[in-house]
Design brief:
The chain is α+β, with helices and mostly antiparallel strands. It folds into three domains: 46 residues, Transferase, Pyrimidine Nucleoside Phosphorylase, Chain A, domain 3 (Up-down Bundle); 242 residues, 3-Layer(aba) Sandwich (Pyrimidine Nucleoside Phosphorylase, Chain A, domain 2); 88 residues, Aldehyde Oxidoreductase, domain 3 (Alpha-Beta Complex), CATH 3.90.1170. It contains 17 helices and 14 strands. Strand 13 and strand 14 form a beta hairpin. It binds uracil and calcium ion. Belongs to the thymidine/pyrimidine-nucleoside phosphorylase family.
Length: 441
C-alpha cells in the first residue's frame, strides 16, 4: 500500500477501504507518513468527503491509536454527556449529580477551558484541594461508591486525533463534517461508558452557527456512536447567549449548586432536566422522559441532588465547607455594576464576546499554560428578551483588576444590544437527533 495511491484515490472521489484508512492513521501517527502527504489527503477529504462507513472506520482507527479506558469494573449502565463547547455551560455539574442521585453511574473525563469556552475541570478546581487527576482504580472505586466521578484524561486517548487536529488547524481542513465528527467521537468512545448524550450547541458562542450544520454534525456523531455499539443521542441547543447567568469558574459553580437546590436560572434548569431525563431513559432507570423528569424534580426537592454534589467534592478531596457555605468560594475584590444607557428589550447578547470578556478578566485560558483567576467573571443580570429601563443594571463584573474591569464594562455596553422586542422569542432546545431520525421542536 502506498500513501500516494490513497491520496490519488480520494482526489478522484473514490471510497477508501478500511485497510487504507487503518494504514494512513497508523503510519501518520508513528511518523512514517509526512505532514505534506497527510495535508494533501486531508484537503482531498475536505473537498470530496467521506461516507458513513469511511467516517466510522476513521473514528475506529483513531480510537485504536491510543488507550481505551475500561469502565467494566463499574456496576450498572454508565452514562456520559458531552457538549461541543459553550459559554457559562454548567450542565455537566448539574446533570451528573442529578442522575447519580437516581442511582445511575455518571463517569466523565472532562477537559479544561481554552479561549472563550470554559472547562468543567477548571470550574471544579474552584474548590480548595479538588483533585481532578485520578488513576483508573480511584475512578472505578469512586464511581462504585458514589455513582459519580468527573476527572481529567490521564490515559493516552486518541493520539492520532491530536496529531491530525493540529495539522487540520494549520491547513484549513478543520471544517469537514466527517473530520469533526470522527475527531470528537474518537475521544468520547475511547472511554467505555454505555450511553452518551451529545449537546450540540448552535449560535454565536458555538462552533456551529447554523441549525442545518448542527443537525448534520449531530447526525454524523450519532451514526458513529451507534455504529460503534453505544447508545448515542444528540440534543441541539442554543448558544446564541450564555447559558444561565454566571460566566466564570467560582460564579458558575455557585450557580450550579443553586440550581441543584432548586434556585437556579430557568434555562440552565430546563436544559439539565431535558438531558438528565434522556440519560435516565438510556440507562433504563425509567421508561419515559416524563417519569425521568418527575424523578429529577423530586431529587432536587428532597436535597438528594445537592447531597450528591457534596459527595462528589468530598470524594475528590475538595473543601466541602465551600459547598455548604457558598460565601467561602473564591471572591473577587471588586464588583462593577454595568448600567443600561437605554430602555427597551435585550435583543442579543453574543455568547462568544461574553466569553472573551470573561477570558480578559482572567477566568479563562489564552493558552494551556495560563493560570486561572477562579473568582472573576460576569453575572448577566439581564438576558435576551428581558425588558430594561435606563440606568438599570445589565450585568455585574467580578474582577481583581479595576482597569480590566473598566475595559470589560465598555465592551459589555456594546455587547448588550437593546432595542425593540424580538419578534420571535428565543428558543432553548432546537431538536433531538437519535438513530431513528431528527425531531425538531
Ligand atoms: N473539536 C474537536 O475535538 N475536533 C474537531 O475537529 C472540532 C472540534
Ligand atoms: Ca452559567
Amino acid at each position: 500500500m502506498r500513501i500516494y495511491d490513497i491520496i490519488k484515490k480520494k482526489r478522484d472521489k473514490e471510497e477508501l477501504t478500511t485497510e487504507e484508512i487503518n494504514f494512513i492513521v497508523e503510519k501518520y501517527t508513528n511518523g512514517e507518513i509526512p505532514d505534506y502527504q497527510m495535508s494533501a489527503l486531508l484537503m482531498a477529504i475536505y473537498f470530496n468527503k467521506m461516507n458513513k462507513r469511511e467516517t466510522l472506520d476513521l473514528t475506529k482507527a483513531m480510537i485504536n491509536s491510543g488507550d481505551i479506558v475500561d469502565l467494566s469494573g463499574i456496576n450498572g449502565i454508565k452514562v456520559d454527556k458531552h457538549s461541543t463547547g459553550g459559554v457559562g455551560d454548567t450542565v455537566t455539574l448539574i446533570v451528573g449529580p442529578m442522575v447519580a442521585a437516581c442511582g445511575v453511574p455518571f463517569v466523565k473525563m472532562s477537559g479544561r477551558g481554552l479561549g472563550h469556552t470554559g472547562g468543567t475541570l477548571d470550574k471544579l478546581e474552584s474548590f480548595r484541594g479538588f483533585r481532578v487527576e485520578l488513576d483508573d482504580e480511584e475512578l472505578i472505586n469512586n464511581a462504585n461508591q458514589t455513582n459519580i466521578c468527573i476527572c481529567s484524561q490521564t490515559a493516552n486517548i486518541a493520539p492520532a486525533d491530536k496529531k491530525l487536529y493540529a495539522l487540520r488547524d494549520v491547513t484549513a481542513t478543520v471544517e469537514n463534517l466527517s473530520l469533526i465528527a470522527s475527531s470528537i467521537m474518537s475521544k468520547k468512545l475511547a472511554i467505555g461508558s454505555n450511553a452518551i448524550i451529545l449537546d450540540v450547541k448552535i449560535g454565536s458562542g458555538a462552533f456551529m452557527k447554523k441549525l442545518d450544520d448542527a443537525i448534520e454534525l449531530a447526525k454524523a456523531m450519532v451514526d458513529i456512536g451507534q455504529g460503534y455499539g453505544r447508545e448515542t443521542i444528540a440534543v441541539i441547543s442554543n448558544m446564541d447567549e450564555p447559558l444561565g447567568r454566571a460566566v466564570g469558574n467560582a460564579l458558575e459553580v455557585k450557580e450550579a449548586i443553586e440550581t441543584l437546590q432548586g434556585n437556579g436560572p430557568e434555562d440552565l434548569l430546563q436544559l439539565s432536566l431535558f438531558i438528565g431525563s434522556k440519560l435516565l431513559v438510556l440507562a433504563k432507570r425509567v421508561e419515559t422522559e416524563i417519569e425521568g423528569r418527575e424523578l429529577l424534580e423530586q431529587i432536587i426537592k428532597s436535597g438528594a441532588a445537592y447531597d450528591k454534589f457534596k459527595e462528589l467534592v468530598k470524594y475528590q478531596e475538595g473543601d466541602i465547607s465551600q459547598v455548604e457555605n457558598l460565601n467561602l468560594l473564591p471572591k473577587s475584590e471588586y464588583i462593577i455594576q454595568v448600567k443600561s444607557t437605554k430602555s427597551g428589550y435585550v435583543k442579543s447578547l453574543n455568547a462568544e464576546e461574553i466569553g472573551q470578556c470573561a477570558l480578559l478578566l482572567g477566568a479563562g485560558r489564552e493558552n494551556m499554560e495560563s493560570t486561572i483567576d477562579y473568582s472573576s467573571g460576569i453575572i448577566l443580570v439581564k438576558k435576551v428578551d428581558d425588558k430594561v429601563e435606563i440606568d438599570e443594571t445589565l450585568a455585574e463584573i467580578h474582577c481583581n483588576d479595576m482597569e480590566l474591569g473598566k475595559e470589560v464594562e465598555k465592551r459589555l455596553q456594546n455587547i448588550y444590544v437593546i432595542g425593540t422586542r424580538n419578534e420571535e422569542p428565543k428558543k432553548l432546545i432546537y431538536g433531538l437527533v437519535t438513530k431513528d431520525g431528527v425531531e425538531l421542536y
